[in-house]
Amino acid sequence: MSGLQYNLHFEKLCRTLRLGELAGEPEPISGGFLHRMYAVETTQGKYAVKALNPQIMLRPTAMQNYIHSEQIANIAVHHVPALPAKRFNGIFMHEIDKQYYLVFDWVLGKSLKPDEITITHCNKLGAILADLHMTDFSGLDVTNDPSNHEQPADWNDYLLKGQEHHAAWVNLLRENINKLYEWNTKAIIAAEQLASNMVISHRDMDPKNVLWIQDNPVLIDWEAAGYTSPMQELTETAVYWSESEAGNVDKGRFLAFIDGYTKRYGTLEADWRTVLDSGFLGKLGWLEYNLKRSLRIECTDEEEQRLGTEQAVGTIHAIRRYADMSSELEKWLINKSI
C-alpha cells in the first residue's frame, strides 16, 4: 500500500470557495463505497461535499474521467432530474493541499431502501433511464474505444494473496473461483458483441444514487457516467430497483421498470442472453477492486480495508445470485418482447 490517505481541510475549502464560515463540524454521511461524503453547514448555506479517494485519484485516467462525467451531468440536467457538482469560477473539482473535492447543493431528499421501493418508483425510473438514453451528447468530446479489450482477472493470484493474509473471503473465493473465470470469459465475449450499439449514460443508477424529494427523484453521483450498452444498463438497473434486502428479484417491480422504459423508448430488440452475460462484467470489476482494498493493494486506511473485505464477501454472494436468477430474467424479458 502506498500509504496515501485522506487530507481533509474543510475550513480552508470553504474559505477558498467563499462558502462562508463553518457553522459546525462537518458530518460524515453515506455516499457510496468509493469516496467520503460530508454534510457541511456554513453561514451561507448547507452543502454536500465529496472528498475524493486519494488512491483512485492516482489513476492516470481519473482526472479525465471526472471531467467527462461532469460534462455529461451538465447536459443530462436539461433532460432528466440530475445534480451536477457546483462550479466556482468555471471549475467543479477543487484541490486543497493535494486533496480533491466536489461540492454539491444540499438536497433535502432520501434514497430508498429495498422494502420502500414500489412499482410506481420503478416505472418512473425506467422512463427516466429511457430519456437519458435518448439524450444527445454528440457535442461532447467523449470517445468510446471498443478496441480496449478486457482480460479476465487473475483470480488465482488474489486467492494466493488472500491465503497469505488470512483474508476472511478466502474460502468463499476458492469455492467459486472456477465459476468466476467462466463468468468473466462469458462477460468479456458478450460485452464485445454489444459494443457496436452504445449510448452515454449514468452507469450506476442504483437506489443509493437517487434521492427522492417526496415523489420526485434526483440522480446523483455521476462519476461513473460514460458509454454503455443501453440494454445491459436497462436490465442491470431494473434488477437494482427490484431486489429485496436478501437479493431476490421481484418480478412485478422488474417488469414495471422495463414498462416505464419501453413507453418512452419503444420496442426492445436484444439477444437477452448476451445482454445478461455482459452484466457480470461490472460486478466482477467491483469484486476485483474490493479484493485489492482488502489486501491493502489499493487502500487508504484500515477503515477502507474493512470496507473492501465486507464488499468482497457481499459481491461474491451477489454474483452467485445473479448467475442463479439470470435464466429466469431471460424468460421474463423474452416474454415481454413478444
TrEMBL record:
Organism: Paenibacillus contaminans
Aminoglycoside phosphotransferase domain segment(s): 27-263
Protein name: Aminoglycoside phosphotransferase family protein
Recorded GO MF terms: transferase activity
Alphabetical UniProt keywords: Transferase
Stored InterPro entries: Aminoglycoside_PTrfase, Kinase-like_dom_sf
